[in-house]
Structure formats: structure tokens, C-alpha cells
What does this fold into?
Amino acid sequence: MRSSGTQAADFIKILRPTLDKANLTYLLITCCDTMSWSAMSSYLSQLRSVESSLGTITGHAYTSSPTSPLSTKLKSWMTEAADNNGAWTSAWYSNGGAGEGMTWANNIYSAITSGNVSAYLYWIGAQDRSSNTNSKMIRVVGGKIEPSKRLWAMANWSRFVRPGAVRVGASGSGVRTSAFRNVDGSVAVQVINSGGERAVTVSVSGGGFVAGNVTAWVTDNTRDCSVIQATVDEKGKVSGSVPARSMVTFVLRQG
It folds into this structure.
């Protein structure tokens, strides 16, 4: 977006009443898809007069990422990010490069837990044209579909954290952890083990939630959101292993 927050506010003052007059009150306005998260933070001071007319605050993460919450009570969405410079890679982890799947797992984690975003979107889902960058999660060349591990990093959240979910407190030693309670009552817990030396055994419990059963999915260099073993004891405590340089999502359901 090339306009300033002030210019956007001037337009929203016209747009919102126009939508309402046309009986389109159910349509929400998002603003402003700035190129960086920090730029959106500065825009907010210029949008205060129309903040109540907005539905969602949106920003991109090309030149700065969501590492702190925006100063608003509205939902914040990170609506566009990608590695547009690196050569195509489908790797989960090789050397920590900008396009690798584990890099994006950590990017999403930081945006959710530090930036408090409630949505995270990659720039292009799939692309069928001669482009050898990581601007997309899936490339299609000559009819051949090649998913990247960026897709599976996203899947470890999007498959199990469903619309309407609420993030709940989570912490862990030596791993990065987030957790969400879904509207169906299930709890999805994401655990990232960035260490390259060994697997980490984790126990998941607390918050008054007593698990009756659990399923776990892992993404790493050889697996794409694949089911792995996890157990739950008679007290509802879940146990499982998170391999070195991997991401595991545990989904807990009450028995």
C-alpha cells in the first residue's frame, strides 16, 4: 500500500457509511497491508479516528516481521510474507536458509506468540510458471507438483488449529511451544525442537484440561505432517517425543 495511514483514514470515512447505506453492514474493512509490520504499527496512530470502523488490522512481513503486538484491540493478520530472493528449496532443514521449512515454522511461531497475530498467510500457495524462487509453497513444473516443506510447516498449524480457536498459555523447556483450544473442545499443541542433537521427550498437561486421547503429527526432513506415537496416561497427561530439528503437533481430546 502506497498511501499513508491518514489517507487511508480519509477513504474509510467514506467507505464505511457507503457500505452501511447499501445494507452491507456485514462486510468488514481491513487495513492496510503495509510492506512491513513496523510500518503498520506507525499507521495505527493515523487510523485512530476510524479504528472503530475497521474489522481487522493487516500487515505484511517483508522488511520486518511480527515480533510484538500491534497497539489495537482489533484482530491482527499477517497477510503476506515469502522468501522472494532465495533459489527454490523444498528442504525442511539444510543450513537454516530463508526458504527452508523449519525457518518458516519458527517465523509463524514468533508471529503468533510474540506478534499476537490471529492469521498468517504465505504470498503464493502454488505457481505454474517459470520461477525458481521460494515465493510459493508449491511449484508446478511441466505438470509435476513439488510441495516445499514450507507448506508442511504451515500444515502443522492450519490442519489442527481451526477457525474460531483461541490461543491458550503454553510453555516448555528447550523447545518452542504454542497451544490452541478449538471450538470442538480439542486442544492443539505445537512443539518445535530446533536442536540438532537429540529428540526431546515432552509431557503435555495442565489448565484444567484432562485428555482422554491424543494424536501427534511430525514434520522434519523425511516426514510431512505424518502420524507418530504419543500416549496419554490414566490422569490425562500426554507424553511424546519431538525429534531433533522437527515440529510436532499434538491434538488432545477429552475422553
